[in-house]
Task: structure prediction
Amino acid sequence: MSALDPLAPLSGRLAAIATTVALILSVAASSPPSKVAVTAPALLSPAAPAHGAIVYGNDMSWPQCPKGGGGYGLPGPMATASFAVLGLTDGGSLRANPCLGDQVVSVRARHLWVGAYAIVTYPTAAQLKRYGGAGTLSVRLGRFGAAQALFNITTMARAGLRSPLVWVDVEPRTRSPWSASVVHNNAVIDGVIARYRAAGIRAGIYSYDKAWKEISGGRVLPGVPTWVPVGHQGRAVAKATCAVVSFAGSKPSLTQWTDDVRDYNLTCPGGVGLATDTFVAPLFAST
Result:
């Protein structure tokens, strides 16, 4: 039992504290001022905006990686951005964004709030064999979904990124198309969400009406945040979309528009915002 154990007698704890203080003072007195180490406090990201405020930011992933380094060299977040949503994958599943570590360093240096998203796909035959194990097809598909989430969790840890929520990007894919069965597709999606939850991470869904209906059958997911893109329709439409029930049955938490150079995002009033620790969390500027 430690001398400072809260269950120890009070007199014993006071004596231990007094001894410790005396030792610290004697060491400080015998050390030259130049020898005293000073640790600068960590710089925190800006405080969260007021609840319900609309806040603007950008998402960035492998297209923002340098040319020759796996990307197109597209620009990062605007100078006026308050947050960035970082892509964990490189356009497919089980393949990491090649410059995620550098992007984490970049947004940290700018004191931006940060979140994460990752593409989810239906397995190829080889992937299902490798990750699915035994059991019914739905069970095996769920394991593949879980494997994708675990891969992304590992990718975040390797890059030094902590996000309390990961946006699951559900869209049609050319290289690994979704199946014609919404039951089987939903098994993959459920596996992804369940694995994130097991790691203490919330999951949100990024998709749009046509894609979500085609892949999931228009499934309603109560309590799951949604991120809704409006394409090239601009900021006004993105802002108005906050008031419209999204593809999964609830109003969006985040909306997006693009100009083909950057993707722009805004937080919806009443949705998950910067202050909730469910969308983006503050990063330390120094650790």
Summary: The domain at 56-267 is CATH 3.20.20.80 (TIM Barrel).
